[in-house]
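Imidazoleglycerol-phosphate dehydratase (Hyphomonas atlantica), 198 aa
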Amino acid sequence: MTTNRTATVTRTTKETDISVTVDLDGTGKSDIETGIGFFDHMLEAFSKHSAIDLTVRCKGDLHIDMHHSVEDTGIVIGQAIMKALGDFAGITRFGHAYVPMDETLSRTSLDLCKRPYLVWKVHFSRDKIGEMDTELFKEFFHALAGNGGMCLHVENLYGENCHHIAESCFKATARALRAAIAEDPKLGGKPASTKGSL
């Protein structure tokens, strides 16, 4: 069992100032401040269900809109997860999860392979949840996959309530990630790849 799978990443641009700390072997404790209420709620759920301790501080140009804050937070969380994973050796690598939420069912499958890709099959019937634009959820997951080395497939299979759809997608991704980052003792600390490296 490896130790200290933790990382802190900061990223400052003219649009955002973000700091993220992750502990992949945590218990799902979170301390989130992005200035976007619903986004904070989703990241808290992501932390809880992935069992990753997550601290996020984001100061963004919210006087313009929420796009930069949401996308850049996805970038930094992805970078922090990748940094904490090191060479990805010894991890299960793949994960998947189905998460129901009342009338809604969502599914995530992911591969921690350092070859990022996003498939996003999620439709929202409303433009906003709270004050957050629903189109920004795709931007977050695209940034997370691209910077976390994930091949990430997120699908809402059915549902009507947009809050439930968004939350089930975050929870399904969290549960899939929890499985993928788990260490597999049968690998003996080696990568789960026939190529010998990821």
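The chain has a mean pLDDT of 96. The first helix runs from residue 37 to 50. ok done for today
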